[in-house]
Specification:
Blueprint (H helix, E strand, L loop, with lengths): L3 E5 L21 E6 L2 E5 L5 H13 L2 E4 L19 H6 L20 E7 L7 H8 L7 E7 L8 H6 L6 E2 L3 E3 L5 H9 L9 E4 L2 E3 L1 E3 L3 H9 L4 E8 L3 E5 L9 E5 L3 E5 L3 E5 L3 E11 L3 H8 L3 E7 L1
Parallel strand pairs: 3-4, 3-5, 5-6, 6-7, 6-8
Antiparallel strand pairs: 1-2, 9-10, 9-18, 11-17, 12-13, 12-18, 13-16, 14-17, 15-16, 15-17
The chain binds flavin mononucleotide (FMN).
Length: 309
């Protein structure tokens, strides 16, 4: 089953300002793209961008489209040291629109396109312009990413966006060829909000939790489909903690926790706090209860923590 995705439309239009992207996600508006209507489209000559595009395809369980040139690029064609090479001539020609071999049959079924390309002389290759100008992308959400030797995404995506200005362009991100699948998927996760429907009970008390939008919570939600029961014990005068029984993805940072916070510790333990503390954790969620209520719930030798999705 395909994942249900919600792309956060914070930075629509990349604001066409040429500003440096950071892949951040500080917006307010969200849209539901429904299920199974995400396309990963990419152009790649030496396979760096292709590798990341394939990570996106597996992570999003999406369709994928390889932007194959009608005339393949040879190694001479992409010799950037030769001012007369095909790639260099195309990049210097505003009108160049290299032809694409295949066409997407029905682009209308996609609401969202994750669009990957290599940086050529600081910009998107001209074939990317052919691509975005070949379709009606009005109202579609486009999440661009690029690979490069060292150059940032710079103005490459904002310039490309001018050729499909009726689409909602999100702020893009540059990656190196050696980017790990985990790093790339973590970036994607910032833009994707999957439904998290876990219910938490502690000692049979059903608790209202505000879950974080991160890959650890999504991983936990998957585990909780088979009900996750953790026998927790009190630790340090501030938390109940216990083993998940397996390791899940984590993004630890040094954080201050307050009563009600639920965190992942070392990737394989969950802690629930009834007093404040500070350490390196990944935030999972927060229980909406007063300190007094949390104290009577958690300030005891042990509790049974149950997650059900
Ligand atoms: C014609 C050409 C121009 C390039 N220009 C740049 C550049 O301006 N900055 C940079 O960091 N890398 C540049 N590169 C390196 C590519 O962006 C990098 O190798 C990229 O990952 C290739 O992606 P691919 O394997 O998907 O084709 C250039 C490569 C080519 C072929």
């Amino acid at each position: 089953m395909r994942k249900r995705l919600i792309f956060l439309l914070s930075i629509i239009g990349i604001s066409l300002c040429g500003c440096e992207s950071n892949g951040g996600n500080n917006g307010k508006e969200t849209i539901d793209t429904g299920s199974g209507n995400v396309l990963v489209a990419y152009f790649s000559v030496t396979n760096n961008t292709k590798k990341l595009a394939q990570y996106a395809k597996s992570h999003l369980d999406s369709d994928i489209f390889d932007i194959v040139p009608e005339v393949a690029y040879t190694s001479e064609d992409i010799n950037y040291n030769d001012s007369n090479s095909r790639a260099n001539k195309e990049q210097n020609d505003d009108q160049a629109r290299p032809k694409i071999k295949y066409k997407i049959e029905d682009i209308s079924k996609y609401d969202t396109i994750v669009l990957g390309y290599p940086i050529w002389w600081g910009q998107a290759p001209k074939i990317m312009y052919t691509f975005v100008e070949s379709y009606n992308l009005e109202g579609k959400t486009i999440l661009p990413f690029c690979t490069s030797g060292s150059s940032p995404i710079g103005s490459s995506a904002t310039n490309l966006a001018k050729s499909a200005s009726k689409a909602n362009w999100l702020e893009g991100m540059r990656f190196s060829a050696s980017t790990s699948e985990e790093t790339f998927n973590n970036w994607l996760d910032q833009y994707i909000k999957e439904d998290v429907n876990m219910k938490l009970t502690i000692d049979n008390n059903e608790l209202e939790v505000k879950w974080e939008n991160n890959s650890s919570v999504k991983a936990l939600n998957e585990i909780a489909k088979n009900t996750l029961t953790i026998n927790m014990h009190e630790y340090g005068g501030f938390e109940q903690t216990g083993q998940i029984g397996q390791s899940i993805v984590r993004n630890d940072s040094s954080i201050d926790v307050v009563p009600g916070d639920i965190v992942l510790y070392q990737g394989n333990q969950i802690s629930v706090f009834y007093n404040s503390s500070s350490y390196s954790y990944t935030r999972l969620g927060h229980i909406n209860k007063s300190k007094t209520e949390l104290d009577s719930l958690l300030n005891k030798d042990s509790v049974t923590f149950v997650l059900k999705a």
